[in-house]
Design brief:
It comes from candidate division WOR_3 bacterium SM23_60. Helix 4 links the parallel strand 8 and strand 9. The protein is of the alpha+beta class and 255 residues long. It is built from six helices and 15 strands.
């Protein structure tokens, strides 16, 4: 995190673009030059000007190009509902970036996204593409309408595979789809999705390193409250500071 003061990390930026991807998922874009966030980092978005809701909402970076910073918000409660109601021209107060970034290395990569976990992985895929890394993007969701960014993903990945549990020809989960892939074609994998998906993927014991973007309920976002601690390789780590990216094999989901 370095020696930056909290004041230098707080910005109130104007929403320049708002896009609904489906009935409960919205994209909010602001112009934020010279921030240079990296894959694995996130921002805390202020929900309202008051104290109700009290906590900010941690939202990962979905894209950052030409100073345009994109957040994708899935409405799952009151806080995210309030964020989704913000309009173009309104101010969006954000703190960050937080989290320890990872480096998008030029390796043959497999990306495994589940649900709204697609957001940080799309940002990673952009970085991999820019570095000339071969990338397969596997994206699973409940229903076809839950799949977002489809065209954008196809532009940055060398191969794409979209699967849903209901309502499509490929009726399967993202983890089930992994069984149909040859792991010899990949050197590293990245994943983000619901906790049950990560557990199931961990149980496959893939022969390549798998790095998980861990989504959890974050309070302070800067490591003070310890509300997001997980057991990793025999010790507790804070998702918001030490992560949010960890090697999947080292996470103890039963601790």
């Amino acid at each position: 995190m370095g020696e930056r003061s909290m004041d230098t990390m707080v910005r109130a930026l104007t929403i320049r673009k708002k896009s609904w991807y489906n009935k409960n998922t919205v994209g909010l874009e602001v112009y934020a030059p010279r921030i240079d966030p990296q894959p694995g980092q996130f921002f805390q978005l202020r929900v309202s000007d008051g104290v109700d809701p009290f906590l900010n909402r941690p939202i990962s970076v979905a894209s950052y190009t030409g100073g345009k910073l994109l957040f994708i918000v899935k409405v799952v409660g009151r806080g995210t509902d309030l964020l989704s109601k913000k309009q173009v021209g309104e101010k969006l107060t954000m703190l960050g970036p937080f989290g320890t970034p990872i480096t998008a290395r030029r390796k043959k990569s497999l990306i495994i996204a589940g649900g709204i976990g697609v957001a940080p992985l799309y940002f990673l895929a952009q970085k991999l593409n820019a570095r000339g890394a071969s990338c397969t993007f596997l994206y699973g969701a409940k229903r076809p309408e839950d799949i977002i960014l489809k065209g954008h993903i196809r532009r940055v990945a060398h191969r794409t595979l979209f699967v849903t549990e209901y309502g499509s020809k490929r009726r399967m989960t993202a983890v089930q789809a992994v069984h149909g892939l040859k792991m010899d074609n990949y050197e590293v994998a990245y994943t983000c999705g619901p906790r049950p998906m990560l557990i199931e993927l961990q149980q496959l014991h893939l022969p390549i390193p798998v790095y998980a973007f861990c989504e959890d309920f974050l309070g302070c976002g800067c490591g003070l409250c310890l509300g997001c601690a997980i057991s990793y390789k025999g010790t507790y780590k804070r998702i918001c500071v030490d992560g949010p990216v960890f090697e999947l094999s080292g996470i103890d989901f039963n601790a």
